[in-house]
Amino acid sequence: MLTTRVIPCLDIRNGRIVKGVQFQNLRDAGDPVTQAAHYQATGADELVLLDVSATTEGRANAVETVAAVRKVLAIPLTVGGGLGNIADAERLLAAGADKVSVNSAAVADPLLLQRLSQRFGAQCTVLALDAARTAAGGWQVVVHAGRKRVDLDAVQWARQAEALGAGEILLTSWDQDGTRSGYDLELLRAICSAVGVPVIASGGAAHADHLVQAVAAGADAVLAASIFHDGQMTAQDVKLFMRSKGLLVRC
Fold this sequence. Notes:
Elements: E1 5-13, E2 16-21, E3 24-30, H1 32-41, E4 47-51, H2 63-71, E5 77-80, H3 86-95, E6 99-102, H4 104-108, H5 111-120, E7 125-133, E8 139-143, E9 148-153, H6 154-164, E10 168-173, H7 185-194, E11 199-202, H8 208-216, E12 221-224, H9 226-229, H10 235-244
Parallel strand pairs: 1-4, 1-12, 4-5, 5-6, 6-7, 7-10, 10-11, 11-12
Antiparallel strand pairs: 1-2, 2-3, 7-8, 8-9
């Protein structure tokens, strides 16, 4: 059996870590290089680094931040935000990313996932799927850092992305993001049952039991930000709790 991965997330804006609620009202949460080194030392299995303003500002991801983080990091690093083409992915991988994630650009051009997968491999191609609940009870895709909702069903998009070559899905609930009320478990179950690739749960974690609930709902990995940025728990603390609940983790 594969171990469940615990992944701190570094949302980056202007070279600093930020954190907000539903992608808005961002507050400063520290220096990415310092925090990356700390998270690695305290048990993180991987890191995700997302440039949250790159797409809305119409620019590429800040590769200098990626390179600086890579210098202090030995664990896998996924980078996203502002990735729009193969050249962008090449720059991020050359700067030290192990995997690249794409959201808005893939929605605009789904075949981008196919091109990324064919060029770099499915194991390197991550779909960042941000989803918001609809009045009808389903979920629709959200792009441009939460600012735009698309007439695209999240579950159908996950299936399509897998067929096009995405090797992993980073699933964030727009409704739960930053609320500290737990992951959207219904959304997680829907996506995890629809695809065969690993799914990373994101959006809403406030304590270790929330992460356990996400794994029970089907997540292969759990991502969190606030609980780590605020010093509430370390990744190792979380993994010890998960192990106490019978989950297989790397401690």
